[in-house]
Amino acid sequence: MTPPPRASLVDPTQPTLWLAIGHVVFNPLAWNIISRNEYRNKTITKLVGTPHRGVALLGTAIFVAGLSRDVVFAWAMEHQPKLELLDTPLVKYSGYTSIALGLLLVLSSTYQLGLVNTYLGDYFGLLMEKRVTEFPFSVLEHPMYYGSTLNFFGTSLIQRSPAGLLITLSVALVYQIAQGYEGDFTGKIYAEREKKRGKKK
User: Fold this and answer.
1) Lowest mean pLDDT among 104-113, 140-149, 152-161, 184-193
2) For all residues of the chain together, what is the average pLDDT?
3) What are phi and psi of 9, to 5 degrees?
4) What's the rounded Cα separation, in Å, for the pair 82 and 160?
5) What is the pLDDT of residues 19-66, one digit of tens each?
6) Is 192 annotated as a binding residue?
7) How far apart are alpha carbons 67 and 148 in whole angstroms?
8) Long-range contacts of range 115-121, CB-CB < 8 Å, 24 or more positions apart?
9) What is the largest CA-CA distance in the chain?
10) How far apart are CA 57 and CA 145, in angstroms?
11) 107-75-10 Cα angle (round to 5)
């Protein structure tokens, strides 16, 4: 295998780069399609018997796919050039800080939503009583997406990987699209719930 030129920051000939970007695009797209279908047709619920089992099945799939994405991301960076300019204590500590903030956002989001609603339980009809407004939702509309992006960014800095930063950019763009796509539909679900409650009263 011929190594990339020294001047190259990213080697586009490495298939792992495109595999990682493909993984990044596929995951949120797949979950949104599957969850919307579940809301309309109850396909998973019919398959496994109850909404809670459906959430458990989908949540497991999302978790495993996330792990797979992270492994492919690390694998992609191993096959890419390093930028020695990033080999400084400031960059390394910035990377660790980014990961710490990212984990804070992801874990606190999961705590506030609970596992059921973290893994799209509202699409299965398992709605929360009211919208969560406590931290981190008090400062960000979609903290889990931002937290995940920060984890990718921090890891890329620590690995001194321009390709990692490119993949992180794809993560940020895909999540930005997913926020509008998912947020609007979730808002619609809760609006319909409130409309039904109003009719009953």
Assistant:
1) 184-193
2) 91
3) -90, -30
4) 5
5) 999 999 999 999 989 999 999 999 999 999 999 999 999 999 999 999
6) no
7) 12
8) 115/55, 115/59, 116/52, 116/55, 118/59, 118/144, 119/55, 119/58, 119/59, 119/62, 119/63, 120/31, 120/35, 120/38, 120/55, 120/58, 120/59, 120/62, 121/51, 121/55
9) 72
10) 21
11) 105
Please check whether residue 27 is in contact with residue 58, taking contact to mean a CB–CB distance below 8 angstroms: no
Phi-psi sector, 165: left (phi>0), alpha (psi -120 to 50), beta = alpha
pTM: 0.89
- Asked whether residue 183 is marked as a ligand-binding residue, the answer is yes
The token duo for 85 is 């300019």
Q: Is the peptide bond before 136 cis (omega within 30 degrees of 0)?
A: yes
In contact, 99 and 155? CB cutoff 8 Å: yes
Write down the pLDDT at residue 121: 93
Does 100 belong to an annotated binding site? yes
Cβ atoms of 105 and 144 within 8 Å: the answer is yes
Pull the structure tokens for residue 112: 């506030």
Rounded to an integer, what distance in angstroms lies between the CA atom of residue 33 and that of residue 147? 22
How long, in residues, is the chain?
201
- Which tokens belong to 54? 């459906």
CA distance 51 to 13: 44
